[in-house]
Amino acid sequence: MIGLNDIQDARSRIVGHIISTPLVCSPALSDICGVAVGLKLEHYQTTGSFKLRGATNAILELSEAERARGVVAASTGNHGRALSHAARAVGSRATICMSRLVPENKVSEVRRLGADVRIIGNSQDDAQEEVERLVAENGLVMLPAFDHPAIVAGQGTIGLEIVEAMPDVTTVLVPLSGGGLAAGVAAAVKALRPNAKVIGLTMERGAAMKASLDAGGPVLVEEFPSLADSLGGGIGLDNKVTFATCRALLDDVVLLSEREIAAGIRHAYAREREILEGAGAVGIAALIANKIAVLRGPVALVLSGRNIDMDMHRRIVNGMSNSVGQET
Ligand SMILES: *Cc1c(COP(=O)(O)O)cnc(C)c1O
């Protein structure tokens, strides 16, 4: 398991490469909840999500020789962006494999961040096969989005910063998918504040970590379109790090409907003046839907990312939509 030392080491490694984001008070949510609510503005992280922390830590942990070979992943989303940026920043090179179905704007965004993009096949599985071929034949180093000790330790630096900015924090709300963010933040927060609760938040349908925790081991779940698209995908049937850590350290996992996530995005925009993607808004969504049972004292929420399609964002904040591709 990842310890406080690993996370402190990660911080000294990545400082200067990432932004130590502010934790700001939300008067509106503090009023609603009756306790102080602090927002960890991780959507201001370079590349628009916290994923740069883990990606940077993982690349900096590689040997010179490994960095020279280059890194590879199959993410079309925030991990792909983060890995591309982090690799370029240290003079390495990322190769991001994508299927032909990935929209052109996502392809060009990753290219703009300096990655080699390989378009291959018609599915994420085809793209993953290409990743494995590049590892086996060309010696590239695969860096996954969450299930890797250096990735978890990098994301855990958010937990250190939360406790420093809010020493009396009693509850930390963290978006949850593969669990790299939640495992890292929980490891840091529980080491420094053993009595604080750390709660994972995710969407109702296709919540792989929640289903796996309930089943007592990693399980496959069906995927559905969600406003929280960054929370989709499985945790890996051969999960090595994040499942065990989430099982040991998370106090609860709370599920949110599409309508509740949409309300979170709307509140963020109208009351906090922040643009969030669905995954980044689940903490706010849980508070305004009154889904966190007991709030004993100061609460911190991780606003994890802002990479939302702006047409969809406009429809949501105008009250024209509460879900992906479906008008209300
Ligand atoms: C990846 C991601 C998450 C979930 O992180 P995991 O480590 O996979 O649990 C949450 N929010 C955003 C914006 C993300 O990009």
From TrEMBL:
What is the protein name given in its UniProt record?
Threonine dehydratase
Family according to the record: Belongs to the serine/threonine dehydratase family.
Limits of the Tryptophan synthase beta chain-like PALP domain = 16-305
Gene3D superfamilies xref list? 3.40.50.1100
One GO term in the molecular function aspect is: threonine deaminase activity
Q: Which UniProt keywords apply?
A: Lyase, Pyridoxal phosphate
Family annotation (InterPro entries): Ectoine_EutB, Ser/Thr_Dehydratase, Ser/Thr_deHydtase_PyrdxlP-BS, TrpB-like_PALP, TrpB-like_PALP_sf
- State the superkingdom: Bacteria
Q: Which Pfam families does the UniProt entry name for this protein? A: PALP
Which NCBIfam families does the record cross-reference, listed alphabetically? ectoine_eutB, PRK07476.1
State its cofactor: pyridoxal 5'-phosphate
Record the organism: Bradyrhizobium brasilense
Annotated GO biological processes are: isoleucine biosynthetic process; L-serine catabolic process; L-threonine catabolic process
